[in-house]
Amino acid sequence: MIIRLILLSLFIGCAFPSSAQTIETLTSGQxxxxxxxxxxxxxxxxxxxxxxxVGKSLDGGKTWQWMAVKGFEKTDFRDIEAFNAQTAIIxxxxxxxxxLKTTDGGENWKVVFxxxxxxxxxxxxxxxxxxxxxxxxxxxxxxxxxxxxxxxGNTWRKxxxxxxxxxxxxxxxxxxxxxxxHYFRNKDFLFVSGGTVSRLxxxxxxxxxxxxxxxxxxxxxxxxxxxxxxxxxxxxxxxxGDFTNDxxxxxxxxxxxxxxxxxxxxxxPPHGYRSSVTYISNKKLLCCGTSGIDLSxxxxxxxxxxxxxxxxxCRKAKNGKVVFLAGGNGKIAKLVL
Length: 337
Known about the structure:
By secondary structure, the chain is mainly β. It has a single domain, classed as YVTN repeat-like/Quinoprotein amine dehydrogenase (Methylamine Dehydrogenase, Chain H), CATH 2.130.10.10. The protein has one helix at residues 2-15; strands spanning 22-27, 34-39, 45-49, 53-57, 65-68, 77-82, 88-92, 97-102, 110-115, 122-127, 133-140, 143-149, 157-158, 171-172, 181-183, 189-192, 194-195, 199-202, 205-208, 218-225, 236-242, 253-256, 276-279, 285-289, 292-296, 304-307, 313-316, 323-326, 332-336. It has a four-stranded antiparallel β-sheet with strand order 1-29-28-27, with no helix packed on it. Strands 2-3-4-5 form a four-stranded antiparallel β-sheet, with no helix packed on it. Strand 7 (88-92) and strand 8 (97-102) form a beta hairpin.
């Protein structure tokens, strides 16, 4: 009898090895939507969202300091980039679009960029170090808006229209998680678009994506590039879907190992619309959306639903190991492996 019990316990332990992955809620209950998330390390975490809100934790999410940026209480800060506990940059999306910077932990914010052009709508930004960053916005006169900084976000320079990527009719970007653009150390960048047309864009133009498209609510939302030190890697993954039908798995994820020349669909895709994806390691990834969270342990070939709780964005700490998530109702959580 004892032997049978031992064998049974061993079977249970082997049959369900993945049950340890859980989502631990750190804070929730505010009437704000959080789409900007930047964990500097496992302890210092910055977030940004609606109603001019910015949050910061210095203890891994146990406690939070919340602030409403004075004069911007109605601004939706859809993305944030932080460098340490004192310095962060936030992106306000639309008409006029703003970028603000703090160097004193959020006590004061300085406007470092503004553009009131009709139709202006910023979608995401990315930095490859503490000085060099890029921001992408929806098309204006059929050109995707691109601006760059090389001084830590103190000043921004708009890319001339002749160098901007052309947009087709019905094509735009989603400001859903601040993760639809990636800036490489060699100053190349990639961003993904959606809508009636969904494409992968670089400084040479756009290439079609084999992802769901055709409606304003469809297309690519997020791109994650596999880290390989300073070397530019050709392995990356893109997620999206239809946010009006957030449990539909149709063509919601594609991956490539040759820079987008060929594509592969997962044999088991994420379980619905996904607005954000992040690498945990070279083979392990996490993605999230309004209908749940999926984990892959085989470089994105198969995905397993680990929670039906909705989140907008997931990010691994830039200088750490912990993966954090943020979403509606002021909700912030972390992945427990």
